[in-house]
Amino acid sequence: MSRKSALESSASVLAQADVGASGIHPSVIADAMGDSASAEALERLNRAAQDTKNVDNAKHLARAIQAVQLQDYAKADKLALKLLEKDERLGLAWHILAIAREKTGDFASSLRAYEAALALLPDHGPVAGDLGRLAFRMNMPELAAKFFAHYRLARPDDVEGANNLACALRELNRESEAIEVLKAALGANPEAAVLWNTLGTVLCNIGDAAGSIVFFDESLRLAPDFSKAYHNRAFARLDLGEIEAALADCEAAMRSPGSPEDLAMMQFARATILLALGRVGEGWEAYESRFSPALSDAPRFQIPGVRWSGQDLKGKRLMITTEQGLGDEVMFANMLPDIVEALGPDGFLSLAVERRLAPLFERTFPKVEVTAHRTIAYEGRVFRAAPYIENWDRFDYWAAIGDFLPSLRPTAEAFPKRNAFLQPDPARVAHWKAELEKLGPGPKVGLLWKSLKLNAERARQFSPFHLWEPVLHTPGLVFVNLQYGDCEEEIAFAKQELGVEIWQPEGIDLKADLDDVAALCAAVDLVIGFSNATINLAGAVGTPIFMLTGASSWTRLGTDYYPWYPSVRCFVTEQYGVWEPTMGRVAAALRDFAAS
Length: 596
Known about the structure:
The chain is an alpha/beta fold. The protein folds into three domains: 3-189, Tetratricopeptide repeat domain (Serine Threonine Protein Phosphatase 5, Tetratricopeptide repeat), CATH 1.25.40.10; 299-410, no CATH class; 426-595, Glycogen Phosphorylase B (Rossmann fold, 3-Layer(aba) Sandwich). Helices cover 51% and strands 10% of the residues. The strands form three sheets. Strands 10-9-8-11-12-13 form a six-stranded parallel sheet, with helices on both faces. The chain is globular, with a radius of gyration of 26 Å.
């Protein structure tokens, strides 16, 4: 297949793509550079329009380009369509139409127009660059990397092309390739602050926060008002546990944001930093930024009615949807007993949860109407609805569950000391206890070592599996796999290299059968791992947990414990990427646990 046809095929796939949704997470900001409607891009389009042999077409193309320049995208759209009615093979008209629709947020239609332009225009580079940025914006880095690589073929020393390709490679966890791209580009453009910034984000991803700060400092030396570099240095300082310094950098970044989306991400990051500092009231107030329409990952709730904003709930009829990722849905359910109590015996609660959680919540709250929400990603935006609720007129209010955090959990001390707040199936707990007994004597310890969504931002938050060796060599224990996803490589490594068996429970899908996973978590004696969906289930059913966490994890709310789950003992790593001391402390605590 030719490069042209391969790119056309990729564009077609991208136009039809459907991606899953997850929660909002603070992260570095090193976006794809460039703008399909920049002055340089429009000048290039004008030159191409002037070269058009058809004088009438050239005149209308110039008017359409001027409309884009004036940000009158509706007019540009109309003019481009008028040209295409006369000649559907006019590649420049397709390109202008694509830009106009991208700017109005009609991403699917924009992608189809870019695809047509890609097929018709002799110079693929600019279109490939525009497609790459749109793919990157829609969280499709693999396709973005293909388009950016094509863009660079004709522009090998171009700062924009190098930066954009490096950003996409970083999101694919191909950091070494990203570093090589950036080193070459910096050799030709040593004064390009954006390249130093992007290089810093790559080092952040591999856990070298201290090294990344050197590059963010250089970026800020070259461009003292570069807001992304301030934000990213804040991110690196969080990895080093320097929370106060991170807050200062974050607030400096917010003084000159590069875009509304950048500002929204900075506001959300500031909220989590305040929470990490223990300034819980301020943090929850700022946490509303998670719903900013400027954030592409922020959910757009398709829910009718009046959103609750602090009114008395006694005797009211309330609909709540859970929010963020699966682990957050479980964690925020910490508040449901309080909400049910606030509604009182005359009130009514309808709760929409991730469908895999429905049986667990139905059992725990038998008087609550539990349905499944539906979350989809469409055209780079996330939408959440409750499609199984038919009669919305019966509700006084609806709320996202996080709306109750400021009133119910205003401080870390306000968290109740409930050992458990979700009820696993007693029959399945008994079943798993019987199965575990067959494995012989010794405490049964469940293991979790990664997240299913190990993108570039999250990968550094987890220890490499080989560093679990001192934990796995603790004598007198039976290890149980609770890790969902593909983990055959790690289990084989434990057996072949460390001589340790990790028991694989049969007859359970650790990703899909969450009600049974909760029962299995309740059946083991201890769970060890990083924060993911399963460890939240273990905490919610009251299982003792050794949790590995970063120095500035916001969910600890500035404490040395874990307010959400009293059964958790935290093992804090002082710096992401330096896990050996932490794993040693876990191993020592595990020896004490086994002995007791």
